[in-house]
Design goal:
The protein is α/β, with parallel strands linked by helices. The protein folds into four domains: 5-126, Rossmann fold (3-Layer(aba) Sandwich); 149-298, 3-Layer(aba) Sandwich (Rossmann fold); 301-397, Helicase, Ruva Protein, domain 3; 410-452, Arc Repressor Mutant, subunit A (Orthogonal Bundle), CATH 1.10.10. It has 19 helices and 17 strands. The protein has helices spanning 13-25, 36-45, 62-72, 87-96, 108-128, 134-146, 163-172, 191-199, 216-219, 235-247, 273-278, 284-290, 307-322, 331-339, 345-359, 372-377, 413-427, 432-439, 443-452, and strands spanning 5-9, 29-33, 50-54, 77-82, 100-103, 153-156, 181-185, 200-201, 213-214, 223-228, 249-250, 259-260, 263-269, 293-296, 328-329, 364-365, 393-394. It has a five-stranded parallel sheet, sandwiched between helices. Strands 7-10-13-6-14 form a five-stranded parallel sheet. Strands 16-15-17 form a three-stranded mixed sheet. α2 runs parallel beside α3 and α13 crosses α15 (345-359). The longest helix is centred in the N-terminal third of the chain and has 21 residues, at 108-128.
């Protein structure tokens, strides 16, 4: 049965009762309010996951209620319903962060379709962004607050903190989620190739331009384009990206006509852009254009409470991928994980768990199964047994997903990741779907990384 608390707000009593009965018949816990003012009173008394409100309320309007709700708690999803649709009110609601906008009459199937979708997305986000630390919860709140809008977002964080995952979740919770999420690693291409990739080119524009090509800006029309490693672009490329953002149009290389595009840009970098500004290596106008909504991906050392749940998450995925049964993490190993500072962040923890599965010989991950760099950073004299005492953490406590690759020095991680992808592609005869399953990635993530590392099937 579905679960979730819903508040229905409508100044028509009969309509409130209809919505409540439909929702309760499906197993949702629904309460009602006759006005926006009463809704705020109930929201102050009790936690609701979703507010379903009429747009044209007596007194406080639905948009005003939406603004008050998001100011108090941006993790609450809001669906606006109206019998008097207008483009202006729809646009205003979307900009303010409404999850969905429905036109009356709303029948049972339409209502439940939207409500079910809301809770599916909330559940998926909690499964994707794992952790209960204050830093993680703050990041989830930002994702939910930013996602429904069309604003540009800038994701900042060290290598391995999950910036691409955050970008994908913003897209997955946005009104553009039905269109494909497109991404490019700006640091992996030369300036000429990056320009062609972003803006496309006309046939004959340069030596190898044998046919016309649409760029990512065109292909991402009405969708999301993720510009990874934006801090590694040249000043010239930054100017071209800025123009596309400001004018909402692009021109293919060798082209003569401007092409209008509606693209939401999410950029990311592990560089200190403010320092690059001072050094004259990053354009100030582009910086402020991108930093409309900054999102910080905290390093793992600032998410200490999340280490165990993340470790279990990766451990189970690695065990499933490797065809092994692993019961969990022994107390001494758990202590080592918690004491380590994780300079490589989540990615390093992921590979540590994969290493433990590949090299371990016991049902429980012990200290001897952990990489040397983790043991070197932890206090000496700790227990090294891999036995399973009662205080060990079982996989079932919170494991959900993970990937491949033993832990190696941070500077070599990308080379190692590239090697693991090449290995997986070779083992599956270059079948992306099968290789993605082997690596514990989605098809699109693997496709992106193949492009990122310039990996192509040998001819």
């Amino acid at each position: 049965m579905p679960s979730g608390a819903i508040l229905v707000v409508d100044d028509e009593e009969r309509q409130r009762e209809i919505y409540r009965d439909i929702l309760e018949d499906e197993g949702y816990a629904a309460e009602t309010a006759p006005s926006g003012e009463r809704a705020l009173e109930l929201l102050a008394q009790k936690r609701f996951d979703l507010v379903l409100t009429d747009l044209n309320l007596t007194g406080m309007t639905g948009v005003q209620l939406l603004k008050e709700i998001l100011a108090a708690d941006s993790t609450i999803a809001v669906v606006l319903i109206t019998g008097y649709p207008s483009i202006k009110s729809a646009i205003e609601a979307t900009k303010r962060g409404v999850y969905q906008y429905l036109e009356k009459p709303v029948d049972r199937d339409k209502l439940l379709g939207v409500v079910d979708e809301v809770f599916e997305h909330l559940a998926r986000l909690k499964e994707s962004i794992i952790g209960e630390s204050a830093a993680t919860k703050a990041m989830i709140r930002m994702i939910l607050k930013v996602a429904p809008t069309a604003h540009t977002a800038l994701i900042l964080g060290e290598s391995g903190t999950g910036k691409e995952l955050v970008a994908r979740e913003i897209h997955n919770h946005s009104p553009r989620r039905d269109k494909p999420f497109l991404a490019v690693n700006c640091a992996s291409l030369t300036e000429t190739l990056l320009e062609s990739e972003l803006f496309g080119h006309e046939k004959g524009a340069f030596t190898d331009a044998h046919q016309q090509k649409k760029g990512l800006f065109e292909r991402a029309h009405q969708s999301t384009l993720f510009l990874d490693e934006i801090g590694d672009t040249s000043l010239g490329m930054q100017a071209k990206i800025l123009r596309a953002l400001q004018e909402r149009e692009v021109m293919r290389v060798g082209g003569t006509e401007a092409i209008k595009v509606d693209v939401r840009i999410i950029a990311a970098t592990n560089k200190n852009l403010e320092q690059l500004l001072k050094e004259g290596k990053f354009r100030e106008d582009l910086y402020y254009r991108l930093k409309v909504i900054p999102i910080q991906c905290p390093p793992l050392r600032e998410r200490q409470e999340d280490i165990e749940s993340l470790a279990l998450h990766f451990l189970q995925r690695a065990a499933l991928s490797g065809g092994r049964t692993v019961q969990g993490i022994a107390p001494a190993a758990r202590q080592k994980l918690n004491e380590y500072t994780w300079p490589g962040n989540i990615r390093q923890l992921e590979w540590a768990m994969e290493r433990a599965v590949v090299l371990g010989e016991n049902d429980w991950v012990g200290v001897d199964d952990l990489p040397p760099e983790i043991l070197a950073k932890a206090p000496l004299g700790a227990e090294t047994s891999a036995a399973s005492p009662s205080s060990a953490v079982p996989v079932q406590a919170g494991a959900q997903a993970g990937g491949l690759g033993p832990v190696i020095p941070e500077a070599s991680w990308e080379e190692h990741e590239k090697a693991k992808i090449l290995e997986a592609m070779s083992r599956t005869n270059w079948n992306i779907t099968k290789a993605a399953q082997l690596l514990g990635m989605t098809f699109r993530t693997l496709q992106y990384r193949l492009e990122k590392f310039g990996i192509k099937r040998p001819t």
